[in-house]
Design a protein that fits this description.
Elements (H helix, E strand, L loop, with lengths): L3 E4 L3 H11 L3 E4 L5 H6 L8 E4 L9 E3 L4 E5 L4 H6 L1 H6 L1 H8 L4 H6 L2 H7 L7 H6 L3 E6 L2 E6 H4 E3 L2 E2 L6 E8 L6 E7 L10 E10 L2 E10 L6 E2 L1 H7 L9 H11 L10 H21 L26 E4 L6 E5 L2 E5 L7 H7 L19 E4 L2 E4 L12 E3 L13 H8 L9 H14 L5 H7 L11 H16 L1
Parallel strand pairs: 1-3, 2-3, 16-20
Antiparallel strand pairs: 1-15, 4-5, 5-10, 6-7, 6-10, 8-9, 11-12, 12-13, 13-14, 16-17, 18-19, 18-20
Helix pairs in contact: 10-11, 11-12, 14-17
């Protein structure tokens, strides 16, 4: 694990520490990938983590006068899902972000972090590749812009230098008459890594395709572009395309591997099937994105606060960590290497939140950080210095009684072994703060980050529905 943790107040300080440490340091923002990589030994020799998550200047989504969209390094997947600009001018990206992980992961994980991880199965890289995106890399030496198709050099490898970080993602917006789509095949509907995914973008001039971008994920060492197929379609009438021939050409571009999620043969077949499906949707103009205009995020718009100065925590240092836990200021003089979950369980005695998987997949550790649901097993506690944290122990109703959600869980029989229950309650409480009168689909969306081995979910959904009714009556 790390020995030094730099909580940067500004970009200049982050770059200075990165230049000084280089190979011994890694930049961290959301941490949903990096923390797991460190724990599994995939990132060795890391002595220092440089946290940029409090630099609010990197949290912007905006469009300049040339119609170029800028997505800062701290923009999360749920930020994109909630962004009217992204939904209207980069809809394949919004579709992909909505299918990443769970609400808790989407609240913490960043698009730039997805790019830096450089996994060929990462969902958001594919639409960004199809949108012709580039990344702005910055170091003390200056800035450089690298097209995304040149950024990746292999599985989990990129051209990023040890003293550089990704400042932002940039790409040209889609016009209303352009067409785009993102499709993903996975082993389940939520919290699943892609078996295959794709993003197709067509720039239209009347009924003709002026430009085309076809990107495939999880079928090669990196996300790939199908340039031969792109050239075949450019300048053609959309209604006259030979879709079967196009699909064959797209399929030939794939060079997948076999793993636990699927064989190479199956992936190649899947890529062709989904390509045919996507092209059919685009030609017929019949695709309806599965994205609500007001999606459930379990989040508050801004969940971090800036810093007046850069703070350095060292393994044996004297800098204390302070958190506002369930409304009370708590000071910790040890545990800087611990996750938020383990710090509060080990050092504060708050054992209500559980560790079910330690990988951000089960939701048993769900907590609210600055009123936003997160997986506490994946968050370095020191990254939240000065922030508000609410655990299951902080969930109460009026006059210290049970919260309506807790009461409904008992009355509806939504609790069996109870191990997952704290996480479900936290997600449900946040849902009812966000949407006091949720429909059934919104309830299901809210608990996609929480797994239960006992109840089959029906009683849990019924309990949340009952709590919503009772809270509305009150």
């Amino acid at each position: 694990m790390w020995n030094k943790y730099v909580l940067a107040a500004n970009l200049e300080d982050a770059l200075s520490y990165l230049e000084a440490e280089k190979q011994k340091a890694r930049v961290i923002a959301g941490g949903t990938d990096l923390i797991l990589e460190i724990e599994k030994g995939m990132r060795k020799g890391i002595d220092t983590l440089i946290d940029i998550s409090r630099i609010n200047a990197l949290r912007e989504i905006c469009m300049d006068e040339d119609g170029v969209i800028h997505i800062g390094a701290l923009v999360t997947h749920n930020d994109c899902v909630s962004s009217k600009l992204i939904r209207e001018t980069a809809w394949p990206l919004a579709q992909a972000c909505w299918q990443v992980g769970s609400p808790q992961i989407r609240n913490r994980g960043t698009l730039v972090g997805n790019l830096v991880t450089a996994s060929p199965a990462n969902d958001t890289i594919t639409p960004l590749m199809a949108l012709g995106a580039a990344v702005t890399l910055i170091s003390k030496r200056g800035e450089r812009i690298v097209p995304l198709k040149q950024f990746f050099t292999g599985v989990r490898k990129s051209v990023l230098e040890p003293d550089e970080l990704v400042k932002e993602i940039i790409f040209k917006k889609l016009e209303p008459f352009d067409k785009g789509i993102f499709l993903k095949q996975a082993l389940r509907k939520a919290q699943a890594i892609s078996v295959t995914n794709l993003a197709f973008v067509l720039r239209m001039s009347g009924q003709k395709v002026s430009n085309a971008w076809f990107a495939l994920g999880a079928v090669a060492p990196t996300i790939i572009r199908c340039e031969e197929a792109e050239q075949m379609i450019e300048g053609a009438e959309l209604s006259s395309l030979d879709l079967d021939k196009l699909v064959e050409v797209i399929g030939q571009a794939a060079s997948p591997i076999s793993d636990l999620r699927g064989s190479a043969e199956y992936r190649r077949y899947s890529a062709k099937v989904f390509s045919r499906k996507a092209l059919g949707f685009l030609v017929e103009d019949s695709y309806k994105p599965e994205l609500d205009l007001d999606p459930v995020t379990l989040a508050k718009n801004t969940w971090t606060s800036g810093l007046d100065r850069t703070i350095v925590f060292e393994k044996d240092g004297k800098q204390p960590l302070q958190l506002i836990v369930n409304g009370q200021l708590r000071t910790f003089n040890r545990g800087i290497q611990k996750s938020l979950l383990h710090l509060l369980r080990d050092e504060a005695g708050l054992t209500g939140s559980k560790e079910g998987c330690g990988e951000g997949e089960c939701g048993a550790c769900t907590m609210l950080v600055n009123h936003t649901a997160v997986m506490s097993c994946l968050i370095p506690a020191v990254s939240l210095h000065g922030c508000e944290v609410r655990t299951i122990e902080g969930v109460t109703g009026q006059e210290g009684q049970l919260h309506p959600v807790q009461k409904a869980f008992l009355e509806e029989g939504a609790v069996q072994c109870g191990y997952c229950t704290p996480g479900f309650v936290m997600s449900a409480v946040k849902l009812l703060e966000e949407k006091p009168k949720p429909n059934r689909d919104e309830i299901v969306a809210a608990i996609t980050g929480n797994l239960c081995r006992c109840t089959g979910y029906y009683k849990i959904i019924s309990a949340i529905e009952k709590a919503a009714r009772e809270m509305a009556d009150e």
